[in-house]
Design a protein that fits this description.
Pfam families: Exo_endo_phos2
Domain Inositol polyphosphate-related phosphatase: 47-336
Order of helices and strands: EEHEEHEHEEEEEHEHHEEEE
Helix content: 10-25%
Organism: Brassica napus (Rape)
InterPro entries: Endo/exonu/phosph_ase_sf (IPR036691), IP5 (IPR046985), IPPc (IPR000300)
Protein name: Inositol polyphosphate-related phosphatase domain-containing protein
Shape: globular
Number of strands: 15
Structural class: alpha+beta
Radius of gyration: 19 Å
Distance between the termini: 58 Å
Largest sheet: 6 strands, mixed
Strand content: 25-35%
Length: 337
């Protein structure tokens, strides 16, 4: 593997220039449309619903300092949605509520409250809103779907949890999932997504204005070895690897996430790090870095609702896991309001 400027895998060798040209300026895929995040946000109009969405594989550990960094204090929003995987057995919701109270501000400038929670062993989905938001909640339901993994004492099943909510007459379903690991399990992950979708979305005859998927989807970088991948990241050329992302490849094939949107993968791959640092894995496993942690969304009512993505990024200051969290700020607006 001596040449760090080449990308080598089962199908041969690729030089950096070849992959750069293959990325081009194409920002859309047959299954997923790539959205460039807008960097400024206005919260002045009452018709806005602004949501901060966070996903994080916690690796079985938690610290108060990490949770403060996780929630942040740089933006106002109506709803805070946090999906965690491999969560410890401590009360994550209570810790998050404590961490968020002195630091972030909801639009209504009220102390936050837990509106809903869904749990499947170590997979959790937490939905927070302003303390006075209960009159806006007209429906709230939690569900789960297991697709395998380790239960029992380990308590780390693979699967998904969902919260569906009618908030201020906007019908939303949030799905937090943890899919099967390893680069060669692409077909299995695709099948797990289909099974989860059939269970938590398709069988429900009700329409949703917005569907959001978040979680450790576990899709990896295809046919790229460790040294060239890390060399590209170190030189801030991780965008070259985007075309090798398994999730986008499967979407282009029409296997998953048809009609969904995702922000640009402008941040470094979020897995796998040495715990307690921002250095990639130096254990005996030496995993190839990958964008395992993702947030995707789909607007069903495109005639009446407009969405704007204001951020899509990793939270690199959080070091307590071998994954970096990912956050998105998404605002909805009634077009004819």
């Amino acid at each position: 593997m001596g040449n760090t400027n080449s990308l080598c895998g089962r199908k041969g060798f690729y030089n950096k220039e070849t992959l750069l040209s293959s990325v081009g300026n194409n920002s859309s895929h047959d299954g997923i449309r790539t959205i460039e995040a807008v960097k400024s946000c206005s919260f002045s109009r009452k018709s806005d619903l602004c949501i901060r969405i966070i996903t994080w594989n916690m690796n079985g550990k938690v610290s108060y300092e990490d949770l403060v960094q996780l929630v942040g204090k740089d933006r106002k929003f109506d709803l805070l949605v946090v999906g965690v995987q491999e969560a410890p057995k401590t009360n994550v919701a209570q810790l998050l509520q404590t961490a968020s109270s002195p630091t972030h501000v909801f639009i209504y400038e009220m102390k936050c409250r837990l509106l809903g929670k869904a749990k499947l062993q170590s997979i959790q989905l937490l939905l927070f809103g302003p303390k006075n938001s209960q009159p806006l909640v007209k429906e709230l339901k939690a569900e789960s779907q297991s697709v395998g993994g380790c239960g029992g004492l380990i308590g780390r099943k693979k699967g998904a949890v969902a919260i569906r909510i009618n908030y201020d007459d906007i019908k939303i379903v949030f799905i937090s999932c943890h899919l099967s690991a390893h680069a060669n399990k692409v077909d299995q992950r695709n099948e797990e997504l289909r099974r989860i979708s059939n269970s938590l979305i398709s069988k429900d005859k009700r329409t949703h204005d917005l569907i959001v998927w978040l979680g450790d989807l576990n899709y990896r970088i295809q046919d790229v070895s460790n040294r060239p991948a890390r060399s590209l990241i170190q030189n801030h050329l991780q965008s070259v690897l985007v075309r090798k992302d398994q999730l986008l490849q499967e979407a282009e094939r029409g296997e998953i996430f048809k009609g969904y949107n995702e922000g640009t993968l402008g941040f470094k791959p979020t897995y796998k790090y040495n715990v307690g640092s921002s250095n990639y894995d130096t254990s005996h496993k030496v995993r190839v870095p990958a964008w395992t942690d993702r947030i995707l969304y789909k607007i069903q009512d495109t005639k009446n609702i407009q969405t704007t993505l204001y951020s899509y990024d990793s939270i690199d200051q959080v070091n307590g896991s071998d994954h970096k969290p990912v956050k998105a700020d998404l605002c909805l607006k009634w077009i004819n309001s």
